[in-house]
Amino acid sequence: MGNYIMLCSKFGVKEQTGPGVKATGADNTWVPVDHRGGLPATANEIIIAKTVNGNKGAKRAVVGPITGAHNIRTLGVTDSFTGWFLKWLFGVHAVAGGGGTGAYKHTYNAASCNDLYYFTMHNNMIAAVTDCVNATLGGMTISFAANDLLEFSYPVVYTHDELASARTLTFSERTPLSWADAVLEINGVPFTTGENFNFAITNGAASVPTINGKRYGDKTAAPGWDVEFGVSLEFDSDTHLRRVWGDAAAVAPTNAIYEGTFRATFISPEEIASSGVYYKMDIYMPRFVYKAFTVEGADVESRIIQNITGAPLVDDVEGYDVQIELYNGDSDYPDAT
Fold it and tell me: Could you list the residue range(s) of the whole structural domain that residue 103 is in?
């Protein structure tokens, strides 16, 4: 047999108790992921030891480091793996009642510098089944265009993979978010002419090599934290151009920086367990600044589109630069024990 296809593969994740401790446990304790495609890639490096040996070629090779990378692409759902991934990315998670019986609100922000969370990725490729160990998230991107589904993308680094036994994973049938569920606001005012949206967090996660008698380390480090968003919309006014220049009334570039608030809200048409509350995701930046402004028109028959890029700053009152809230039926995302 052969010619296996991605549609028949399965992918799941589970939090580790710490670095170097592969996640185990019953199949129903693993979180299935609605993967959109792509497979983990492990680099098995070899060091060629060149010497003077009377020949142009090398005669010796030594094993080098093993490292792994992956990009998890998922649908835009507001429960299950999304809740876990946000916890692992932000390093913090708080849960409260969501306003109805069976509904919960999960809050994530970077108000504190918490340690990284590690998890194991279960990767059933049909012909081979592996577990990718000591995985950490290197960021997250949320993107969508008008007339399309939301897509989440999570870059992952891991230290190594191991052969494993196939697990039984039960996948959700939750309705994914689409462009029709989105509302974008600047300074509390919705704008309805957005055509593309992109929101990205990167933290620079990378494996940390250590002298431990193995070809791989057990830890990763994430020394950075950068957040940026971009929106493309109709060029129907000069509002954003003036703000990029530093003031809503500016007629040319100034030495000022315009600050505002930004919110992106996504409300699913699906209700949470007859609670009267609907699945929802809210991204909020209490302070943002414009980083760039461009206009484009590909040819004489093109519409003129404006593209704005912004980045958040830490708000001293709120204590964070960006916060994400999820409303769903998951009661908690507890730490592994």
Answer: 6-328
